[in-house]
User: Fold this.
Amino acid sequence: MLAAIAASRGYEGLVVATFLAGLILVALGMLKLGRLLKYVPHPVIAGFTAGIAVIIFLGQFPDFLGLNVQSVRGAPELFVHMLSRLSEFNGHAVFLGGLSLSIVMATPFVTRKVPGSLLAILVTSILAYGWDWPVPRIESRYGVIPSAWPELQ
Assistant:
């Protein structure tokens, strides 16, 4: 949803949507409307959560393989499109993705003071930038990230 807002309304629209979502969550919390969730059956919540997990996984998998998959709507179409382009995978991206996953999974066994995800980002970023590996970067995919707050309009 955030990517769609950013694509259609730009950075300013994303900031506004984020603040509005936060205000709505605070209002729902102050009104104690979370207690209404006890009337929603557990299988519905579990199914909804599992569905979101599958969609997020499928959305991240092309990046893990270094595939440039754009303008695909829906999980089934993404899966078929991704399988058709599997021969185009980027070995550097697969290595960095596997290394990231390994670091995240191994870090709790070594230390709990440093989050594994942060360590994975640092290590793989240093590798990708240090050796100038041909992997997609934030600025190549989304453009330059603004360093200032947008002006209120």
Observations:
- The radius of gyration is 19 Å.
